[in-house]
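Weekly puzzle thread! Below is a chain. First person to post its structure in token form gets bragging rights.
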Amino acid sequence: MKVLIADDDLVSRRLLEKTLVGLGYEVVLASDGLEARHHLLAPDGPRLAILDWMMPGADGLDVCRWVRDQAGAYVYIIVLTSKDRREDLVAAFDAGVDDFITKPPDSTELRARLRSGERVLALETKLLRAQAQLQHQATHDSLTGLWNRAMVHTQLELELGRAARSGEPLALIVADLDRFKQVNDRHGHAAGDDVLREAARRMKSVLREHDGLGRWGGEEFVILLPRTTRADALLIAERVRAAVADGPIVAGDLSLPITLSLGVATTAEVPGGVDPLLAAADAALYRAKAAGRNRVE
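Winning reply:
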């Protein structure tokens, strides 16, 4: 793990470096506060820092304040000091310092304090990972991994706002697996789940990187196509339809032919927001169903 040592005293800096290298750390050196800030705010900067309180350019507390205001990942900061007045310690904690060690530092105490910092950083990493997992669960469909209904609605509102500001078209596709109820009724919900997962994978595989795909509910999906005219949206919808119909979907021991009907609407034709656009795409979908399914309208 990388540790920053920031100290304007060369001898002190070298002694600390030797100690930390002996403890197995990768050491980054800085001779003043401005250099320390540069290292700590770098994208791959150290997550542990030992800062001398008094340094030229900027002192350890100034560096700490900058890091707390600007750094993305949390940096555990230990300040080297001979100060022990209550008001000094309060000022340091107010600046965001995590821990102190007196100068010159005892190697055993320093190791213990660095280990404490590592535990804090490890806990933060676990918490951030758990937070990301919860965020994903809140915004994605657990079966297909696509956006869920709430996320589709949120993204649609965002894209409509962008389209209104830029004047560029936004296209929306509502897609529905044909006769999907028969799959569940005849072969069970496990087979139906396999079909949904594979259909979602096939749809996603032919979309552009900036397109959005979500499961609206049941066997219905919504596709967002930013900066897309109706003519281009129809081409993309046909590509999606063909991908789903391109060979049977394997569900357990079964091989099931699956098709998809799609309805297209664009902001150029349907002004007025989320609900009118969804209603227009739904109406187009029902026309596709009425015209024989496995088609785009």
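Puzzle host: Confirmed. Bonus trivia for everyone else. The chain is about 50% helix and 20% strand.
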